[in-house]
Amino acid sequence: MMEEGSLWHQWSMIRSLLAILQWWGFNVTVIIMNKWIFQNLDFKFPLTVSCVHFICSSMGAYIVIKVLKIKPLIVVDPEDRWKRIFPMSFVFCINIVLGNISLRYIPVSFMQTIKSFTPATTVVLQWLVWRKYFDWRIWASLVPIVGGILLTSITELSFNLFGFCAALFGCLATSTKTILAESLLHGYKFDSINTVYYMAPFATMILGVPAFLLEGNGILDWFESHPSPWSALIIILSSGVVAFCLNFSIFYVIHSTTAVTFNVAGNLKVAVAVLVSWMIFRNPISPMNGVGCGVTLVGCTFYGYVSHMLSQQQPGTPRTPCTPRNKMELLIPLVNDKVEGKV
After folding, report:
1. What pLDDT band is residue 218 in, cutting at 50, 70 and 90?
2. Cα separation of 62 and 194, whole Å?
3. Diameter of the chain measured on Cα atoms
4. Could you read off the pLDDT of 118-132 as tens digits, one per residue?
5. What is the pTM of this model?
6. Is 14 exposed, middle or buried (0-12, 13-18, 19+ CB in 10 A)?
7. S-S: 53 plus which of 46, 243, 300, 322, CB 3.0-4.6 Å?
């Protein structure tokens, strides 16, 4: 029996490690591909790229749920789809678009560090708007996050104000999505696949017309001037497929790891994305800039640890709002976009 228990424990660790590695792989690949599309393919149309991702994710979620039946469909009332899902989809759409816009103007390393500011904006928004109580340890954990972001921004050698603002407002959009999810999606236990199944079609509908009106003529000009447009289009479509695979990997990693492991792996993922992007694009990073990024990630890890510890308090003890009680509450891609950032 002990040997069976030991083998099961080893298999569980291996499965968790594989789940984290494939999650990292898809996440970093989406980010690098998007940056490559904007920078190397000179396809400077973030609305269209976002729309392609939404379309691919809509089709992928339909195939997984309706055709392959890998995941059961969570049934949502038609009225709730417009009253609950549509507002979430609107914010979800803004979040993705702002992330892609920021990638067009600033390096991946800087963009990923700014996105780590999301826990701070979430806490502050809930405190200001909803007057929610937060333990002093939560506030203390935000200090290194804010300090790291300030240090990174001041020392960023490729600073662009427009890209910085897009990434910062993307954090606000992610935080708004987090807060709305608590109220609008109350009563529904969405996983990442069902979330995409309902939200991606709405996001496509919301973004399709603006993308066509604002970027249509530019895309035609790009198509005529680009030396190999068809191969470039394959890369753009592939990024949409990988974006959907990322959502599937999120579902797998949540079910294969603990909440603490998920949080730590999410912060390490940012470090991996920064390192890989630097190896590919060779954007200049000063020593103090690297220190600021490191401080931010340490702060995010500390925030996740404190949130988890407070969530484990005995009944009757004040519980920090927006802290997942268990992994099932992590099934809606909220503060991490970490899942962030991608469809």
Report:
1. very high
2. 9
3. 68
4. 889 989 988 988 888
5. 0.83
6. exposed
7. 243
